[in-house]
Structure formats: structure tokens, C-alpha cells
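target protein:
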Amino acid sequence: MKITSVFTVLLFMVFSFVSKAQSKDALSNKKKEWIVASLLENKTEQTTILGNPTMVQSPYGNVVAFNGIDDALFLKEMPLKGLESFTVEMIFKPESNGVFEQRILQIGEITGDRMLLEIRVVDDNWYFDGFVASKGVKLALATEELLHPLEKWYHVAFVVTPNSLTTFVNGKQELHKDYTFNPIQEGQTSIGVRMNKVTWFKGAIYKIQISPEALKPNQFLRL
């Protein structure tokens, strides 16, 4: 009788462990994709619209244009929660006459642990800035030496692992640095501006995708 009871307990523990592992795997394998025009068209209680971001036509169909002054979307979503590795991709077109510092996407806390996709505008060009703050340690991957012309469509990717950060533009690696990353646990998402409503983005965005793993360039979204 005692042996049977012990066996039953062990069996229950095994099934519980497998079930939890499967649930974790299922969660970790989920990608998050935002077609930004759909966020605007199909607004829910999770979405707050600032200013007047507008739908415009593009080679990808409807996309959302941000005026660089007061247009943005805030989402009550935190797709990076608990992820040890992830890849954030975006297809967008930066436009002329915007401010120098432009925060396009922020996920996480307002000033605490967070991840941002940003650009810096220099004359008729821009350069990419991937930023992470984790446990009080901040790191930005950016250099003015890697310029790209404005008024064109681009794909950017920011790959984060437990020990490194890497940026890509149109599938080509730009910067890579060692960094000890601790998963972001709290926060939400802003598109078109930093979460504290400064440094607005001027341009259009088609799609944002978050994958719960460090992707290789051949796995990126196609531009």
C-alpha cells in the first residue's frame, strides 16, 4: 500500500512537471505580430490613440503615418514579459523634417526595465539605435557611421540574448555588444513615441513582430 502511494505521488509529480514544461514551451513559442493599420482600424480597450495617426497607402497596403508631433499608439500589452531571448522586427519608413531623436517603439516600463527601437536623424539620413535597460544597466547600440537615406522602406531587427545585443538593418548586421540581459517583467507598449511622450517619430510603420528567440537573418520578416 505504501509503495503504491509513493508511486502515485511520483507519477503525479512527473505529469505536473511535464505539463508545466509544455505550458512554458507553448508560451515561449508564441510570436506577437502587430499590423499597425489593423491596430488603428480595429481599436480595442487595449489601445489608446494619441493625436491623429492616419492610414495611408504603401507597397504593403495600408500603413500608419505618424506626424512626428503628437501621433502615437499605446497598447496595454507586454509581449516581452519573462523572455530571456527575443527578436524585435519592424518594417517602417522614416521621413524628412523630423526631430533628431526619435523613439519609435518602447516595450516595458516607462523609465525602468525596457527595450526601445529608435532612430537618429542627420540631414537627409538616419541611423539605427537599439536600446535596452535591464536591472539598472543601460546600453544603446548606435553609431552615426552607419547612415541610411530617409524616405525609403526598411526592415530593422534587434536581437537580444542573455549575454548580447545585436542590431540589423535590411538583414545586414550593424552592431553587436556583450550585455547581461535580465528579462523584463512589467510594463506596456508605445508605438510612435517614447512612453513619457517625448521624441516623437515622423514616418510610417507597416508591421512590428516580436519572436521569443534569437532569430538569424534568414528567419527575419521579408521587406
